[in-house]
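My main concern about presentation is that the manuscript never shows what a single data entry looks like. Each protein is reduced to its one-letter sequence and a matching series of backbone shape codes. For the editor and my fellow referees, an illustration may be useful. For illustration, here is how one protein appears when written out as sequence plus structure tokens:
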Amino acid sequence: MELMAKYQALIREILALKKKKHAIILAHNYQRPEIYEAADYVGDSLGLCKAAMKSKSKRIIFCGINIF
């Protein structure tokens, strides 16, 4: 819970920018939990692709995974 409290101000700022820029955030389910808080959709690669295709947003922010 401490970790989430630490990021609440940043998450609020991200949500405000997301709204202002008409964007959605797609996050892979291997992302960190604090990323999930700002994401519109969390899922696997196929689910993220489907969500992107259905989106009417001007911008898509994709939070993928790093395999290295």
Summary: The longest strand covers residues 23-28.
